[in-house]
Amino acid sequence: MEIDNYKKVCEYWRLKALEFDYQERYAALGLPGYNENNLPITYFGVDYEINRTDASITELKRPEEEVDFYSQSAIYHLFYFSKEAPRNANNFIPLHELRGAAPFSPAFKKSTLIPFAKAFEGKTGQLIDAAEKLGFERLPNSDAGFQAMAFTCMPIRFLFWDGDDELPAQATILFDQKITDFTHEETVIGIGMDLVNRLLDAAGFKRLA
Description:
Blueprint lengths: L2 H15 L4 H8 L9 E5 L2 E5 L6 E3 L9 H13 L10 E3 L10 H16 L3 H10 L3 E3 L4 E8 L2 E8 L8 E7 L8 H19 L6
Antiparallel strand pairs: 1-2, 2-3, 4-8, 5-6, 6-7, 7-8
Helix pairs in contact: 1-3, 3-6, 4-6, 5-6
């Protein structure tokens, strides 16, 4: 997608966001901080704000910088696509098992999971450091497993196994079985890619294309 198209899509969602019933959605999603002024929303541990007047999104620590496409999409889609009473199942599954998302799984593996594994091959310690820097919760599974909160209502897990002489490094991202109670299945892919990019940024590596 060209940069101009990204901006057009963000503008489309900003205009739709003017009509959201934020009070109702904050209550349904269990999001903290609802008030009558600008609305706080935390995405992967970063604090953002939704402007009450024009529905634009700003990162609090970097208000002068434009918020990227994937972050804006994730935030707007949380409010638009979430169900009336969303609930997590606390059962984590890979993308190909997620209802409605299986057709996207091969492309997600090629564009996100394989590059993720290659980037941190032989660098497990750097992945752990990056995840801890971002405030993610360590899991006992795999060489480097963590749970990240995309939103306070949306846990996501990743597992990483470093390579050896016989096998290359492997990585997987697991989503709550009911994540589509909270967002669109295609948005899940963007959130997964955003997770990897934030890890790459924290490690000082090049982001995914």
